[in-house]
Amino acid sequence: MLTYFKNIWIGFYSALVGMKITWKHIFAKKVTIQYPDERFPLPSNARNRLQLMPARCTGCTLCVAACPVNCITLETVRVVPDDPHQELYENGTPRKMWVTRYEMDFAKCCFCGLCVAACPSDAIHHTTDFEYSSLDRSHLYYKFQTLTPEQAEEKKRLFAEFKAREAREKEAKAQAAKPDAPRPEAEV
Amino acid sequence: MSEKKKIDIEYSQLDSERMRINVGPQHPSTHGVLRLEVEVDGEIVTDVVPHLGYLHRSFEKHCEYMTYPQIIPYIDRMDYISAMNNEWPYVMALEKMLDVKVPEKVEYLRVIVAELNRIANHQIAVATFGLDAGAFTPFLFYFRDREYIIWILEKLSGARLLYNYFRVGGVAGDVYPTFKEECHDVIAKVRKTNAEVMNLLIHNNIFIKRTAGVGILTPDVAINYGCSGPVLRGSGMAHDLRRDEPYSIYDRFDFDIPVGKGEVGVVGDCWNRNMVRMHEMEQSCRIIEQALEQMPMEGDVTAAIPKRIKLPKGEIYSRAENPKGELGFYIVSNGTDKPERLKARGPSFVNLSVIPEISKGYMFADLILILGSIDIVLGEVDR
Amino acid sequence: MQSTNFIWDLFGVNLLTVVAVVALPLGFVLIYALVAILAELKISAWIQERLGPMRTGPYGILQPVAEVIKLLQKEDITPDASSKLLYNLAPFIIFSGAYAAFAVIPFSSAFMPANINVGLFYVFAIGSISAMGIVMGGWASSNKYSLMGAMRSVSQLISYEIPAAMAVLSIVVLSSSMNMQEISHAQTGYFWDWYLFGGPGSWTKVFIIPFTITLAIAYFIASLAETNRVPFDIPEGESELVAGFHTEYGGIKFAMFYFAEYANMFVVSAIFTTIFLGGWNSPFGEFLQGPGWGVMWFILKSFSIVFVQIWVRWTLPRFRVDQLMYLGWKVLLPVSFICFFAISLFVMFK
Ligand code: SF4
Ligand code: SF4
Known about the structure:
The structure holds three protein chains of three kinds. By secondary structure, chain A is of the alpha+beta class.
């Protein structure tokens, strides 16, 4: 009988203890951050949307290889020597590769940061921008190349021409060199 | 046949029809997309069959097509609540295979982030367990505190939940100037909230009535099923890889391994499993305090490793104490930069398998609590 | 005009009064429900160190309005497998049950929709209607969760009706009236004249003060169970039964369940106020006493009880169904019987 009343009292008392705690919290300072008006400052290394600096990117494809979800599409064309349009990297050395396509699909990206770690020239980095959601998936497809499609076509054409010319030259050289060098055959 | 006997026979045949209920995959308390097929007789559970696979992302198969560093972000997504702890055994396996010596500072940093993440994980476990019992307020108290932990981890790694912080031979981010103070701050907050929740929830009479003596898991059943972590320790077995098989630098710290003692209820019941988590938070706080004291603040956070990680031919199993139990990775390497086979031994998956064993004969509302006390994450169960 | 004449015949000059008496409580119920929903949102938020709704209107005070508008706009879904009539009827029954109880609530000495002699009895009779609605809704939605919720609800209502009735009966014994207006009149004076503190009378009443306070607590607990509030919300226990008996309901029908819950909360608080806290009486003698102020006191007192209900909800975990039965039959019932017995003895030998 005594334990019966004791149990009732313990149950009632523990409820009162809880109520006392919650009562105190009614007047405690609130922790809510009212998001669009107030913001929590993100640390500078927060891994959000990526940003490419085209002036630094050498088109080395290391980031493509590092990415676990294949969300980077990279296409490069070599810079031909007789192209009237030459460019310098940010650090002053002349550009060797045109990045004709550098596209990222942020619908796929998992923000792992491996591409950033892999990039030898610090051309790619995370920004603190996380508010780029969109109702259209194509809006998440970011194109970072600075060349217009026409320019890219132009570069490709130039490169093809250059290659063709090179091949011709090589052939011509080989033709020219033939009479002098029948040796491999002779050796056999 | 006498009238009385006839009535008796009829009475014995008076069996209410059993009802089959699908709990999940969309249900507020299955902690994800778990589906339990429950057979109830009135309110009493007579059978439980868990159905898995609603979150299957073929993690292990994916890994065979990825280079070793690329796998780490995927491992984060297994048990997304304690991503730091998940990465550890995997990275440890690679380091062992490559024979890389990890700098001292990195070891300490790893211990600190892993223990912080352990606290965060246990906070969620206790919070959602309370939520299953109907107490909403402790849930938000814990989520408020967890935010402070996440802020620290975010400042270190750059991400809030899926850190991808551990690298082979190091970590991805160095400490920042106010790191130590913030850690001490967080520890104080964790302790304060824990003390509060102890009174508000854990020692509340209704909560005790709901959880004590419910879902009793005896030690031998736990061992037979391969349970680990707080589920096993709740049954009174002091098994903790940090102590039994000290990896990294855990042998340098002084901490206890809390086990279910049965102060309330029976050893191995829901209350004791939950209580182990409460005590473990305190032990993690102690480890962090010691690590902060001993940690060298200067130095590099990465060891010299080859750019392209190629494991020598062979195989390795490496395991570590995840907040949910023993997490192991079995890696078979064929000498290239991609694993031939990677098998993960997830604690949630193994612990979940004990559900049908321990929930029969309890009431339907208890089943939810038993599930909550096991603390599963479906991301890791289904992988 | 032939068609409307019978109304005139029926009510005569009282037509205006009838309209006022019908419309005022309805308006009150709706406005009160909105306020109570807001209070629940805000108090729960404050307890959890949040701010709660802040975006709809200044400090979010229009949030319940927005919620109701949202619910009104929703598609009205009737599950195919449900029995349509019962399914559609259930919310109305529950709401009318809750609303009808307002008929006998004495808001002030001058305003009480229906001053009937068996007011308390009426409230208990009407209160049971909601159980019927819950069973109808739970059974008709042909959902296993709903069915279990409905079954739990009935068993719960039956178990808790008795201790609540016992508590009320003890006060009826003390005041020798079932008329809620008369019970309120009897407590005029200072706050120590309330039945919570033994009611008016000489110093001998100190013998029954412990019993009346126990009864008040018992009645409060039982009323929590009757309104399906935490820690007794097992008919809708969200962690196991998703939403219990109203799992399948949506839109305006769900809103009616929602409103009925809050209306019921007020009804039980109003009864508590009337029988324990002196109804519309001022706690300090003649200070702000009167029919007009009475409404203020009454609503203030009732709202404090509603506040306590909300406060309890955000503090305690939920009972299991068998523990709930235990508490009802083995704790509250004996306790309220003992108190009833003691108070009856006191009244006999006074
Ligand atoms: S952050 Fe990760 S997923 Fe995103 S582009 Fe870089 S490597 Fe790929
Ligand atoms: S790794 Fe860096 S430099 Fe190379 S392609 Fe990627 S962004 Fe450009």
